């Protein structure tokens, strides 16, 4: 039986152009997402709902060369970091100063400590001494897992490396001292729930 639409055209089912055509699998889960984007979306949610004020710090750079192809546009040709950056994010939550670093890895069995730098550890130690809430967020991209680790738990792994020990934190070690942040819709990565658990 032929089915006709109101416009008079006959229904034609889609048929593959060729039997040899490759089938494409399209995944829409976490499309285009990165840890930074997930955290920025989360922080925007916190801000618009009056829960916390947390922002990504801009990287301090000094621009030394600019190309002006036309008056309406400019292109930076050369720039240098002014000073070593500290941590990625900071802000305020319920009267407490928040400071944290966020890193991701494609490794599945361990997280390389080379992703951190000594000046970042020094900065986090200083914030901790002043009574701030300091932590690291680590994402295993391939596993689709994100973890919240208080700085007090992260610091011993860094010291172990300085003392000549392993230069990474194994996935199993991390699971014992960190809380997994489940993915959600809004907010995307609700790390405030874990802050409440540890600090309030």
Automatic annotation (TrEMBL):
Region named Disordered: 1-23
Localization per Swiss-Prot or TrEMBL: Cytoplasm
Highest taxon in the source lineage: Bacteria
Known EC number: 3.1.21.10
Polar residues composition bias: residue spans: 12-23
Principal subcellular localization: cytoplasm
CDD domains: RecU-like
Catalytic activity reported: Endonucleolytic cleavage at a junction such as a reciprocal single-stranded crossover between two homologous DNA duplexes (Holliday junction)
Cofactor binding remark: Binds 1 Mg(2+) ion per subunit.
Keyword NADP: no
Protein keywords: Cytoplasm, DNA damage, DNA recombination, DNA repair, Endonuclease, Hydrolase, Magnesium, Metal-binding, Nuclease
A GO CC term attached to the entry: cytoplasm
Residues under site feature: Transition state stabilizer: 103
Required co-factors: Mg(2+)
HAMAP family the UniProt entry points to: RecU (MF_00130)
Role: Endonuclease that resolves Holliday junction intermediates in genetic recombination. Cleaves mobile four-strand junctions by introducing symmetrical nicks in paired strands. Promotes annealing of linear ssDNA with homologous dsDNA. Required for DNA repair, homologous recombination and chromosome segregation.
Family of the protein in this entry: Belongs to the RecU family.
Stored NCBIfam families: PRK02234.1-3, PRK02234.1-5, recU
Entry protein name: Holliday junction resolvase RecU
Source species of the chain: Listeria rocourtiae
